[in-house]
Automatic annotation (TrEMBL):
Its main location: membrane. It comes from Jatrophihabitans cynanchi. The keyword Nucleotide-binding does not apply. The chain crosses the membrane at residues 273-291, 303-323. It comes from the Bacteria. PANTHER family: CORA FAMILY METAL ION TRANSPORTER (EUROFUNG) (PTHR46494:SF1). This is Magnesium transporter CorA family protein.
Length: 329
């Protein structure tokens, strides 16, 4: 586990003034009406979170939610601040696993504070997004919220796109007759289905998180210029949610088709086995009926018995090898 770290920034009148202030100085800058303060706490311990709560007079329930990595994504409005928490996700194509990390934020009148439980989410990409849209900083914390949420939602799109590519690969391999490939297909289908469920649990609640932040912007006349940015962000969340819906239908179709193909392959094998049984049943019935009373090679001699046993074993082994190679056994 990484050590606790704090990263800070101060803007004055929309212009970056300082990037490395002491955490104890945060309150001093917050008291200045022309300043905007941001601080990021990565992997904070209980002492650091308690210090943050005391310094900013934050609601204890919000602090508890920020510490809980299993908390449902949500946005809450309190008397002096707004709290939001959500998950940043990415899909690791090499391991086939979904990587999720908790990101929370506290918004004050002139301050914005992010809390990350680990360093899996790169906050530098958010800072770069703020720098690329430096003209929005003059609108205060709402602009910082937009940059953070926009970066997280873009991660949703990348994750969903990766899952989409994975499902397309499943569709390409769906009609492979190789039995090992069929078993691998089932494992990959299950893994993608599991990842998709986790993505939906993250993306769907994000609509309410963005909607809550957007309402705060619409209620502030001096932030009206940010409204189109939030509307575009909300549209992106809806598109990501709709994309997950279509992927759920696709993965269900792949799963059902794979089961139908497995049943079809089983029916073909049963047909072949039945055919072989019919072929073998004919000489078995004839020799059993006549009791092999006619002379045959080795008739009346001991070596004939051993030749008969050897023939049975060789034929049985040959059939076993044939069926094994065709994966009927």
């Amino acid at each position: 586990m990484s050590e606790s770290s704090v990263r800070t920034r101060v803007w004055r009148n929309g212009q970056l003034e300082s990037e490395h202030i002491e955490f104890d100085q945060v309150s001093d800058f917050l008291a200045q009406p022309d300043c905007l303060v941001w601080a990021d706490l990565c992997n904070p311990d209980d002492e650091l979170l308690a210090k943050l709560a005391k310094e900013l007079e934050l609601d204890p329930h919000a602090i508890e939610d920020a510490r809980d990595e299993h908390e449902r994504p949500k946005a809450m409005r309190y008397a002096t601040h707004m709290f939001l928490t959500t998950n940043a996700i990415r899909y690791d194509a090499n391991s086939g696993e979904l990587v999720s990390t908790r990101v929370s934020a506290f918004t004050l009148q002139r301050g914005f504070f992010t809390v990350r439980l680990d360093d899996a989410f790169d906050i530098s990409s958010v800072v770069q997004r703020w720098d690329d849209n430096a003209d929005l900083i003059k609108y205060g914390p709402r602009a910082l919220i937009h940059g953070l949420l926009d970066e997280i939602v873009d991660g949703y799109f990348q994750t969903v796109e990766s899952l989409d590519d994975g499902i397309e690969e499943l569709e390409d391999d769906l009609f492979d007759e190789n039995s090992n490939a069929a078993r691998q297909l089932q494992r990959r289908t299950f893994a993608l289905r599991k990842s998709l469920v986790e993505v939906r649990r993250t993306v769907l609640p994000m609509r309410e998180v963005v909607n809550t932040a957007m309402r705060r912007v619409n209620e502030s006349d001096h932030n009206a210029e940010l409204a189109p940015y939030y509307e575009d962000l909300y549209d992106h969340v809806l598109r990501a949610a709709e994309w997950t819906e279509s992927l759920r239908d696709m993965i269900s179709s792949v799963f059902e088709t794979n089961m139908a193909l497995a049943d079809l392959r089983m029916n073909l094998i049963m047909k072949k086995l039945t055919s072989w049984a019919a072929i073998i049943a004919v000489p078995t019935a004839i020799t059993g009926f006549y009791g092999q009373n006619v002379p045959y090679p080795g008739f009346g001699h001991e070596w004939g018995v051993w030749a008969s046993v050897a023939s049975i074993l060789l034929i049985a082994l040959a059939l076993y090898g044939l069926f094994k190679r065709k994966d009927w056994l």
